[in-house]
Amino acid sequence: MEFTDELIKKGTLARDASFKLASVSTTVKNNALEAIAAALVERADEILAANAADIENAKNNGTKKAMIDRLSLSRERIEGIAEGVRQVKALADPIGEVIKMWRRPNGLEIGQKRVPMGVISIIYEARPNVTADAAALCLKTSNACILRGGSDAINSNKAIAKIMQDAAYSEGIPEGAINIIEDTSRETSVQLMKMNGYIDLLIPRGGKGLIRSVVENATVPVVETAAGNCHMYVDGKCDADMAEKLVINAKVQRPSVCNAIETLLIDREIAGEFVPRIFKALSDNGVEICADEESRALWDGETKPVTDEDYYTEYNDYIIAVKIVDGIDEAIAHINKYNTKHSETIVTEDYSRAQKFLNEVDAAAVYVNASTRFTDGFEFGFGAEIGISTQKMHARGPMGLEALTSIKYIVYGNGQIRE
Amino acid sequence: MEFTDELIKKGTLARDASFKLASVSTTVKNNALEAIAAALVERADEILAANAADIENAKNNGTKKAMIDRLSLSRERIEGIAEGVRQVKALADPIGEVIKMWRRPNGLEIGQKRVPMGVISIIYEARPNVTADAAALCLKTSNACILRGGSDAINSNKAIAKIMQDAAYSEGIPEGAINIIEDTSRETSVQLMKMNGYIDLLIPRGGKGLIRSVVENATVPVVETAAGNCHMYVDGKCDADMAEKLVINAKVQRPSVCNAIETLLIDREIAGEFVPRIFKALSDNGVEICADEESRALWDGETKPVTDEDYYTEYNDYIIAVKIVDGIDEAIAHINKYNTKHSETIVTEDYSRAQKFLNEVDAAAVYVNASTRFTDGFEFGFGAEIGISTQKMHARGPMGLEALTSIKYIVYGNGQIRE
Question: Is the pLDDT of residue A1 over 90?
């Protein structure tokens, strides 16, 4: 594989820095994070000027308004970014923890110690705040990072990264700890995904197209993040008031995110009373209903027929698919067939069904009597989140600081040889 | 991607079985493992007949004798395989453990529970015993498996798998839990590496060519295993008797394995006395010495000049590369440049250097005053080993049963919604 000069240069810098970072103390890392937070606010004008150039380019390219909103920074937003860096500073440092240690019969003392991954690369889209978030989380966990943001935000990303580098390196963080790829071409991005020997972990953050491209092209280890086709199953033996409240929260509170529900499954046992009630409530909240024939027949309001395609769709919008099922077994089978292994919830007062759902549904987070909207590093109490993993390997569900670490075995001997 | 009918059929069987396996009790799994062990011995004639066909084919293909030895089974070897299955039965079942559980301010109770990966595929070469080992470890951890052994051992592998399937399914293990790919073509193997949605984890076990092919082609999550370019650094402040004993053990006790050392680094501080002594000992043990000019000048016996290429080489043989270094910093820099992140050891009586080595050397296992030969699931006390990971993601070092598991968050609520 051939790599561009920029990739070789920054890959080498990152790898070399990663060896030194492993021994940098928590105090130095925290001082650097504080200096970064201060510098982002002090040098906000540089960021805003770069951001203005990005917005100008976006307008000239006919970019949609919603996209330009996501791209836009203000002094308040920059203060928010700096506050996020300070929150990362305040978290406990996971590096160096000896998770367990034991003695073997031959006297060897073997410990399992938490260490940095080494070099983490993050490929992401629009929002420039990810540059600061990702670099801060990597720094806190003693990882060097190689950031590759979208072309839309390249000027903003470069300005943020430059300020972070200046502040971090002046506090004793080894040079090369923070890197940003300036060439945002697709070809270079694909090369980055193949930098075995330079990159220990690659995390894509963005839409389906990006995730797909990374999974197909990457030869370095990847954590796949967050498509969320989430379900709520309303069981026959539930508190219907609670069920209504949970359906509306999980669908309507913020429909654009990965932990909102997309399909509602209703137990036939209570469909007669629950369908008209929940369809009215959803409709009153502006949700378009795509439902099966059986449930459509139970309500006079407007609905559309649901298709198999709908069941596979992550709407991220005010739309919901609805299906009446013949109890919990059909609900679980439906979920395990159509879900993306993100977040699933059952509403029930039945003990055995609750346990069955928790055990048999295959997803990163399975809930009883709660909204799926809680699948999030902050809501889980991790204090940070680099993304939500939908794979089972390495990290599953919300990824906090620990997901950015590896382990190493340390072995203390006194001359042991193997017989 | 197009898949062969066999892959689709067995992939679907495995995926469906994996959902059911998640709820199979430890008792049922242990009964199945006992039945498998008994059946392997009872039906040994079937395995031996299939193995004879493989050996016949290998001879007709002009296969080397060493390879034929690795392929060959006997009644004793089959009894050894059955004993291995009983050892897996005796291990504690990691599935279902709730690693931790905590309560959030809103009353949600969140638990982190150990669950199966789902479907694990293992691609391996020659030895037919891997078929039984891998299937037993997957079964113990409630994973469905898709085994793809080499073409040389296909008849033996099919016979072993058939006996395991019969025994396991008769004990209540869901059909589809154990699968073997009968088409051993390279094209089918590459397709297998791309079965996202069917395979949750792929583990290659074999030589460099196989590992390379998997890393380059796979789109499913992979744990890369075990190339071992391991080092011993003999520090100036060491017990020279211990150092000699450790060098000889780590190089000579079994040179063909991944945790044997390939390069010896000697502190200049003691080179004058230690080089002649250790070169003689190595030479007496039949080890060929490739050394730098400085050390070669210190001994009259036969040595060859070392090249940079030597430092990158995993000999797996009675050959060692030697370099005199200017203390621990040069030793660590050399190791971090040339190693494969497997196992590294320092011999020293100096406290600070021991700690520095443990902290700064980047490898799965770092030792003080012990032979690298202990990097092994059994020697570490895990009771089993599916391979030794040389990547940092998911599992690092010897992989026991826990490396074949994932986690899931279980969340108990009483109507919580997100504000």
Answer: no
What are the tokens at A113?
């110690």
Cβ pair A356, A332 in contact under 8 A: yes
Q: Are A138 and A35 in contact (CB under 8 A)?
A: no
Non-local (6+) Cβ contacts of A232 within 8 A are: A246, A247, A250, A261, A263, A264, A265, A344, A345, A346, A347, A372
| CA-based R_g, chain B, Å | 24
Query: Residue B46 pLDDT > 80, yes or no?
Result: yes
C-alpha closest to that of B225 among B258, B265, B249: B258
Q: Distance between CA atoms of A230 and A209, rounded to whole angstroms?
A: 19
pLDDT at site B363: 96
Place of tokens 């032979």: B371
Return the axis-axis angle of helices A240-252 and A268-284, rounded to nearest 10°.
Answer: 50
Q: What is the pLDDT of residues B292-326, one digit of tens each?
A: 999 999 999 999 999 999 999 999 999 999 999 99
Show residues of chain A in contact with B221, CB under 8 Å: 221-222, 224, 391-394
What is the arithmetic mean of pLDDT over B73-100?
Answer: 96
Q: Which residues face A115 on adjacent strands?
A: A406
Chain A hits for B364, Cβ within 8 Å: 408-409
Residues B381-409 have pLDDT tens digits of 998 899 999 989 999 999 999 999 999 99
For B46, other C-beta atoms within 10 Å of its C-beta total: 16
DSSP letter for each residue of A152-184: GGHHHHHHHHHHHHHHHHHTTPPTTSEEE----
pLDDT at A67: 84
For B236-288, how does the pLDDT look when each residue is reduced to its tens digit (9 = 90+)? Answer: 999 999 999 999 999 999 998 899 999 999 999 999 999 999 999 999 999 99
Most B CBs within 10 Å, among A102, A418, A419, to test the B interface: A418
DSSP string, A312-365: T----SSEEEEEEESSHHHHHHHHHHH--SSEEEEE-S-HHHHHHHHHH--SSE
Contact B367 A411 (CB under 8 A): yes
- The interaxial angle of helices B129-140 and B26-42, nearest 10 deg, is 160
Q: What is the mean pLDDT of residues A95-111?
A: 96
Please report which residue ranges of A152-267 form alpha helices under DSSP H.
154-170, 186-192, 208-217, 240-252
Instruction: List A205's β-bridge partners, or say none.
Output: A124
Q: Which of B108, B366, B413 sits opposite A408 (nearest CB)?
A: B366
Could you tell me which of A319, A322, A318 has the C-alpha nearest to residue A294? Answer: A322
Q: Which two tokens stand for residue A258?
A: 């990965």
Taking alpha carbons only, the member of B161, B157, B117 closest to residue B140 is: B117
Residue B400 is predicted with a pLDDT of 94
pLDDT of residue A66: 81
**Checking DSSP bridges between strand B109-116 and strand B405-416, what pairing results, if any?**
antiparallel
Per-residue pLDDT reduced to its tens digit, A118-156: 999 999 986 899 999 999 999 999 999 999 999 999 999
Helix, coil or strand: residue B115:
strand
Distance CA B251, CA B178 (A): 38
Q: State the Cα–Cα distance between residues A323 and A277, nearest whole angstrom.
A: 15
CB A314 within 8 A of CB A321: no
Contact B104 A371 (CB under 8 A): no
* Cβ–Cβ under 8 Å, residues B292 and B307: no
Confidence (pLDDT) at B227: 83
Q: Which two tokens stand for residue B319?
A: 């050959």
Q: Is B137 helix (H, G, I), strand (E, B) or coil?
A: helix
Q: Which residues of B231-242 are buried (b: 16+ CB within 10 A; e: fewer)?
A: bbbbbbebeeeb
Q: Compute the average pLDDT of residues A11-27.
A: 95
What's the burial of A300, exposed, middle or buried (CB within 10 Å: 0-12/13-18/19+)?
exposed
Look at B393 and A409 and tell me if their CB atoms are within 8 Å: no
